Amino acid sequence: MSDVIPDSLRAFCSSRVQEMPDNQIVAVADLARHDASVVRLWIGEGDLPTPDYVKQAAMDALVQDDTRYSYSQGMPELRQALADYHQRHWRVDVGPDRFCISIGGMNAVVMAMQAILDEGSEVIMPTPAWPNARQVIEIVGGVNVSVPFDFHDDGRIELDLDRLFTAVTDRTRAIFINSPSNPTGWRMPLVDMERLRDFCRERDLWIVADEVYNHFVYDGNGPAPSFLQICGPGDKLLVTNTFSKNWCMTGWRAGWVVFPKGMDQLFARLCQYNTTGVAPFIQRACIEALQRGDDFIAHQVARCQASRDVLVEGLAALDNVTVFSPQGTFYLFFKVHGLEGSSLDMAKRILREAKVGVAPGSAFGPEGDAYLRICFAIAPELASQALERLVPFLRALESRKSAAVAD
Length: 407
What we know:
By secondary structure, this protein is α/β, with parallel strands linked by helices. Helix content is 42%, strand content 15%. The protein has 14 helices and 15 strands. The protein has helices at residues 7-10, 15-18, 24-29, 52-63, 76-90, 104-116, 131-139, 161-166, 190-203, 264-274, 280-292, 294-316, 343-354, 380-406; strands at 39-40, 99-102, 122-127, 143-148, 150-151, 157-158, 172-178, 206-210, 237-242, 255-258, 321-324, 331-336, 356-357, 359-360, 371-375. Strand 11 and strand 12 (331-336) form a beta hairpin. Helix 5 (76-90) packs parallel to helix 11 (280-292). InterPro entries: Aminotransferase_I/II_large (IPR004839), AspAT/PAT-like (IPR050596), PyrdxlP-dep_Trfase (IPR015424), PyrdxlP-dep_Trfase_major (IPR015421), PyrdxlP-dep_Trfase_small (IPR015422). Keywords: Aminotransferase, Pyridoxal phosphate, Transferase. Its cofactor is pyridoxal 5'-phosphate.
């Protein structure tokens, strides 16, 4: 926001950066980061530690002085491990030359947008959406075009592809799809993925697919399909991903981009000028995660499903709450009817009065302001504890509303 820049410097700072909104999730979390009494469901990370074998690989690399500059695009061994991982889980043959290692999923999205956008290029994005992706488009000079999801009273979330296609103009460069979706938990059906692919081929558009949560699909229906399964090596497709979620490596800051064949030198250049690459000892840990971490992913998904079921059942029983049971991710998006004030105000109040940290729906765009998001990548016992605090608060909210109507 422009008011955080001193007057003496404002005219000399980037207008794009000055106009960026503050991150509302961080604004809530900063109020109680060190309060041990709070059940923290605001930020998207699991409560399990990084697996020991991943940490050991990094420590071994440090002891061996693997601390110097490495390949800008990423170690060949890591890119081969990623190729093997995609073959194992999605049965796709993606050569190691089509991967670029990034500083987390955030940097992956940054490089994807830098690679394809010019000044004024439009990107179509279903919303509510991850705020970081929305802001990256603006930072690199693009224009974000929002197409809202349809939220139904029975708890379904749908994306109207016809409305999405209608939003395309001659300035549109790409369509951004996050499936499974943060914050909604929506998952794009395979038939819609194929329809979108065909439309983008016909209109010569890019698909930027954020597939971070592909493993977090429940009731035995995972992993979610990948656009890599239906697109060829020459299609205009960029897939972004991260090590953060699958292996509880949020603080390690490592991710990857999959790009069309022949773009390896472009992405190596982007890495060189953005970050000069990922630390080699972290890359060694990432190799270990890919090669040994499948059982850990399965354990996390089972644990998330148990916590999801606890929270969905408890919140759905409330008359003033509509729960959108997630088809994927580890987020629960729910609507509180008769919300008092903005969702940011409500998130702060829940933190203060119920000692539960939740994310305001408005953090994901104005379309989310009647909603709240909670992360359920936690132990089922902690999910029950959060429910024990949230339910009385939300029931009291309904009681006050009923009393006001009666008066």
